[in-house]
Amino acid sequence: MGRSDEVAGLLCEVGLALDDDDIADRLGMNRHYVNAVCRQLADAGVTTRFRNSDGKLVNRWKHGSVMPESSVARTTTTPTRRLRRKRGERARSNVETLIGGFSTFVRRFERSNAFPGPSLYFHEKAIAQRRRHSSVSGLLADDRFFECVYAVLPSWGMHRMGKQAAKVGDFDAMVESFRSCEPVIDQLWDLHISHVSEAPVDELAEQIWSVLGALRVSTSATRIVAGSKALHHVLPDLVPPIDRQYTFQFFTGQKAVNSGDERAFLEWFPYLAEIGRRASTPIQEALDRGGFMATGAAKVVDNAIIGFMQADSEDVDAGED
């Protein structure tokens, strides 16, 4: 099987828009070969090749194209591909386990009362202020709301005194970055993580990332953590907050992502939406009973992930001698 089959097989399997560097890394292939193959596949109509929101050329499997039959057998033999599959298998296994015991994990989180004090107080204040608004324009004009969000971020670990490089950024810059995204946020305003259908979820993830990538919340170049925690308070029923200790490790087993923030979010959000969709009943039950930090559907998904990781950590500790 040739390189074209390997690249086509990867794009068909992943379903995401990948740039040439990412494809080369995943397949252990020379980047120059990948570039030539991607152009050939696009010319043949097998894939689409376009510039993403960052202006970088990416490649996506074209719906309706026929996947080369030889791709599946060959791609699994490449060491870097085996590593990628292993990470994917971890995410899929954790998602299935989480959904199967969703209520148990949510109640585990609620019993832990893990985030009291300012982290709870300012979060609830921000969400209450958010719920007062029925339109994006009204919310984004509300300085009081942004003051609440600005207070949440340090209490959620986004800012520490001293030489630590990553800190919450300038208040006015954060507010202006949100307001510049108003047209896109308006399109997302009424969406609910439990009602996102499977078909457009990849496009929805890209739409959300176009906001996350534009926000100026932290002085760090990393956007996924601070951005998601801030955007969660604007879209509390759609975008869960993402953090390194729980979300990152739930999907990857690590507290860092080597593939970049954007790629990680585009891979993880479909899983988060699937959890929201398949666990819609226990999510609503947690909201109805007013469980600890059950301030929106997306936060309940996050609560379940935290409960899952708390239980997983306890199992590991119990196994140590």
List keywords for this structure.
321 residues, mainly alpha, 2 domains, three-stranded antiparallel β-sheet, globular
Describe the fold and architecture.
The chain is mainly α and 321 residues long. The protein has two domains: 3-77, Arc Repressor Mutant, subunit A (Orthogonal Bundle); 86-319, no CATH class. The chain is 63% helix and 4% strand. A three-stranded antiparallel sheet has the order 1-3-2. A hairpin with a 5-residue loop joins β2 and β3 (57-61). α6 (102-112) crosses α17, α9 (143-155) packs across α13 (224-234) and α12 (201-212) packs across α15.
List the helices and strands and how they pair.
Elements: H1 3-14, E1 18-19, H2 20-27, H3 31-43, E2 47-51, E3 57-61, H4 71-75, H5 79-100, H6 102-112, H7 118-131, H8 136-140, H9 143-155, H10 171-180, H11 182-188, H12 201-212, H13 224-234, H14 244-252, H15 261-278, H16 280-289, H17 297-319
Antiparallel strand pairs: 1-3, 2-3
Helical run tally = 17
What is the rounded distance between the termini? 49 Å
Helix content: 55-70%
Coarse shape: globular
Specify the oligomeric state.
Answer: single chain
- Mean pLDDT, as a whole number? 85
Order of helices and strands: HEHHEEHHHHHHHHHHHHHH
User: Using only CA atoms, what is the Rg?
Assistant: 21 Å
What strand line-up does the widest sheet have?
A: 1-3-2
| Poorly predicted ranges | 69-85, 315-321
Topology, number of strands? 3
